[in-house]
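Re-run with default settings, no changes from the original entry. Doing this only to confirm the output is reproducible before filing.
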Amino acid sequence: MSDTDSRVFKMLHERARRIGPGDTVAEPMVTSSMFLLDDQPPPERTYGRVGNPTVEACESRLSILEGARSLVFPSGMGAYGAVAMATLSAGDKVLLLSDGYYAARNLITQVMGPFGVTLDTVAARDVADHPVDGYRLVIIETPSNPTLDVVDIAALATRCKAAGALLAVDNTVMTPIWQNPIALGADIIICADTKSMGGHSDLLLGHVSTQDEALFTKLFQVRTLMGPIPGAFEAWLLARGLDTLEIRLSRMGDNAQTALPLFADHAAVAQVYYPARHPQARHQGFLLGIDLADKAAADRFIATAGCFVAATSFGGVHSSADRRARWGDEVGEGFLRLSFGVEPTAPLIDAIKTGLAAL
């Protein structure tokens, strides 16, 4: 039995280990902001901003999957913000990917910059040759987004530790099912649970995981004192989504890999972007990028195929397509990031063939 199978099994039975006769098997949703107090109440049962049973149950599931203590935040960027506030001080330098999520770069320059924090960037393909000395925090995504370049987490973690830098890995694309940054030496995991962790395109949520107890305490202080408190309903939705995460990812990944040759062999597709197989990850993923001639070609493919919802974000049960140039990514006007969903494979492939025929 693989370690992943063991963690998923334990996560799925986490609720069952806490209940007794007459208790609900499904996780209940607790929305109360107040708790009945005795003389010395436990801190997590004093006030809703400090603790909530539904949020804690969700965090327990995440901690099992990540192999590290986890805290939930109201969005993926809320998780990024908590990491920045918990780790950075005036004069600190941060290294981020130039081809990663643009909002993370904006967070450091626009929000943390006025407090004396500075940002450097490097492309994912060049991280291995970029010095990490002098940085307080290094944040990567692997594969990068949207061109899906792979960064060697273990090698970078070794260099960061030698340089005294914290390494945070945005693991949104791979999730703990396919990649475990903590086991590879990273200090911090950031994940936008809005994507495939929740999986149904109906919530905003994120989490941070770490095995560093002092850092975990600081993150908890940031959440409690600054107030980015996740809602019980959103935490309940995420906990429910986690139950099917492994199954959903399996179909999503299979769909992406089945479609890959169609794009690779088509004359109208100038380039296909899909992660190279790497020993740190257990799968190449459900995201695929393609370069078409221009915006008109990209729009025509989406409209004709009829199987990709034209939307940003990714990881939902429906396949979707995002023309990333509109957001300022350094890609061509005809670049599409395709996120494969859980649709039955055969009709999905037929629809893609129809869309490609229109090109």
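The domain at 3-242 is CATH 3.40.640.10 (Aspartate Aminotransferase; domain 2). The mean pLDDT is 96.
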